[in-house]
């Protein structure tokens, strides 16, 4: 058995890497929501000064990286690895943001699970002794996502009740071998899980089975239970997906009630902000983690969380071809240092 | 300094992981080329028995994984990590191939550098003691790529002289902590490099600067020179990109002549197969590595290669918006055991 492997899908660190610094950039709607005060920067211009929404996403990642460096009292060139990805076709938000910066880059695609996936891979790279200053980063943008996955905004399509609102935002976290800040103690890599949901406007239902599978795997592999955590935070299941996870979990003997929170329901006021089932997109769990959650852990308001990034694995092509939507969920156990 | 880190972008293993098994699946045109005898399976039906080319790509990855398991005398469920990605929007070739298999999956996007990127991340996961049986896998398909990036085939668009031919194929490699087979001794993570090429039909020129930057970084970080390798193999620069790399390398004092090979020129007969500048696509370097190169290393015909996966980071959206094409290149040093 590999030294740090636990069970089927998980590993645990002997010397847990630290998340020493984090940064979050958010858009206008997010700046009007309940987590507004936790973001480092908010911007009312949906273009972030660029000509296209895709370039706005690039700009958000650049701002997140710059802010991260400033908060860490480092130069951006001090980072020695950037693990990042986004929702845009061929992940151009991430690649364009790092253009000619000389930063070693591992490109990822995990849909909305990317914040957890990038943290997980950063922790492998740092915890294994291969890199020193690894950045986990991702972004999403409401307008670029809507036109890529559903309809261009100008079309004025009506949103269904199960729809979620893609968060405009970018988050970045610096992972180092040691230092002050919350520690990554263990991770579970998710498997592609699919119960046959085909409605591209109901991502929560598509992702909930993957979330449950990964949470169960984490508990089994590492001998944990819900009470070992202050909070089990899913990426962006939204209200419906969260309800499904609670119900199906209960049926399988996993009582998440009282412990479960979801970034998609934390980031917006669901009653006042007209976002239907809540937030979604890579940026949703990214800014909730790199704003709100890490801050709470750092200040001792939370001691231990299981951060479960959830992603819906579909493309407009697969949806048009009538294929179902798979989900994936990666879990990262983060503890107050 | 992290224990295994070398220089700015590289790391070296104290106990190099082994590539114990590899498998390759290729399409019709590839089965008519010079490497035909090295592939495990070839198929003349471009749909691989599926209804769409996107699903054909899924099927190819499934076949590669199944073949890998059979060659390793293992069950597919014995694999404990699959690092994979592809060129399709939202990497649906990879995610659909792993649907409901229960295999822990890290999704990657590195364009045509994915075989190198997935090997590199697998080696981190295994070399760091986190996983035991990691699979690095990728695929591409001529028809799904043409219609996504350029024109649907039925349109009959004329190919420019600098164009390359996307390889239809999938490759998979099993990385284990030890065992018989070529060893991964060191890796260099590439940075996003962009000299301003905007012609989406000239990927070789877009990727050559990234290849040179990564090869230089590998030499500097690990104190190596071209003569330390039997072969320096770039992913899929094609004939033009390879010529550019040789010329620009020479200008910068790096003499690659006599050592440089390119998967894009190895896989097809450029004079007879009407592929213009050669092969491309994630599958190009994947089947060349998981067919030809690892076989040569295993039989002692090669002792040490630097496998340099090259990727062009663009999307149809970025091209339509007039943006340049960045390149990235990851290098994996592989030695005969």
Description:
Two copies of one chain form a homodimer. The mean pLDDT of chain A is 97. By secondary structure, chain A is of the alpha/beta class. The first copy, chain A, has ten helices and 15 strands. The radius of gyration of chain A is 18 Å and the shape is globular. Chain A has two domains: 18-176, Stage V sporulation protein AD (Peroxisomal Thiolase, Chain A, domain 1), CATH 3.40.47; 183-335, 3-Layer(aba) Sandwich (Peroxisomal Thiolase, Chain A, domain 1). Chain A has a seven-stranded mixed sheet, with helices on both faces. In chain A, helix 6 packs across helix 7 (238-251). The interface between A and B is large, with 68 and 68 residues.
Question: What attributes does this structure have?
Answer:
seven-stranded mixed sheet, 337 residues, Peroxisomal Thiolase, Chain A, domain 1, homodimer, 2 domains, alpha/beta
Overall domain count of chain A: 2
Largest sheet of chain A: 7 strands, mixed
CATH homologous superfamily grouping of the largest domain in chain A: Stage V sporulation protein AD
What structural class results from the helix and strand content of chain A? alpha/beta
CATH topology of the largest domain in chain A: Peroxisomal Thiolase, Chain A, domain 1
Most residues in contact: chain pair: A-B, 68 and 68 residues
Q: What is the number of helical segments of chain A per DSSP (H or I, 4+ residues)?
A: 10
Oligomer: homodimer
Q: Categorize the overall geometry of chain A.
A: globular
Assign a percent range to the helix content of chain A.
25-40%
CATH class assignment of the largest domain in chain A: Alpha Beta
H/E element sequence of chain A: EEEHEHEHEHEHEEEHEHEHEHEHE
Strand content of chain A: 15-25%
What's the average pLDDT of chain A? 97
CATH architecture of the largest domain in chain A: 3-Layer(aba) Sandwich
């Amino acid at each position: 058995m590999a030294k740090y492997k636990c069970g089927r899908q998980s590993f645990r660190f002997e010397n847990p890497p630290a998340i020493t610094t984090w940064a979050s950039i958010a858009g206008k709607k997010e700046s009007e929501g309940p987590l507004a005060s936790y973001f480092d920067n908010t911007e009312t211009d949906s273009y972030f000064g660029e000509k296209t929404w895709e370039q706005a996403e690039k700009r958000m990642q650049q701002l997140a990286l710059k802010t991260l460096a400033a908060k860490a009292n480092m130069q951006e060139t001090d980072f020695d690895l950037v693990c990042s990805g986004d929702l845009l076709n061929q992940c151009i938000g991430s690649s364009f943001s790092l253009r000619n910066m000389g930063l070693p880059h591992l490109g990822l695609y995990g849909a909305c699970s990317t914040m957890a996936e990038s943290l997980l891979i950063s922790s492998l790279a740092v915890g294994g002794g291969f890199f020193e200053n690894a950045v986990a980063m991702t972004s999403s943008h409401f307008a670029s996502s809507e036109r890529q996955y559903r309809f261009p905004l100008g079309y004025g399509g009506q949103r269904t009740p199960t729809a979620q609102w893609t968060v405009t935002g970018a988050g970045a976290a610096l992972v180092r071998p040691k230092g002050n800040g919350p520690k990554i103690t263990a991770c579970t890599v998710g498997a592609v899980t699919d119960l046959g949901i085909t409605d591209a406007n109901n991502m929560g239902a598509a992702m909930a089975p993957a979330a449950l599978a990964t949470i169960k795997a984490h508990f089994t592999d590492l001998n944990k239970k819900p009470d070992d955590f202050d909070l089990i935070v899913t990426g962006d299941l939204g209200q419906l997906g969260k309800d499904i996870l609670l119900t199906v979990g209960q049926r399988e003997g996993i009582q998440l009630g009282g412990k479960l929170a979801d970034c998609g329901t934390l980031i917006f006021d669901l009653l006042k902000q007209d976002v239907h089932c809540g937030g979604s997109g890579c940026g949703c769990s990214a800014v909730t983690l790199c704003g709100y959650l890490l801050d709470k852990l750092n200040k001792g308001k939370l001691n231990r969380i299981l951060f479960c990034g959830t992603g819906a694995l579909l493309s407009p092509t697969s949806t048009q071809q009538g294929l179902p939507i798979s989900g994936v969920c990666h879990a990262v156990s983060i503890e107050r240092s």
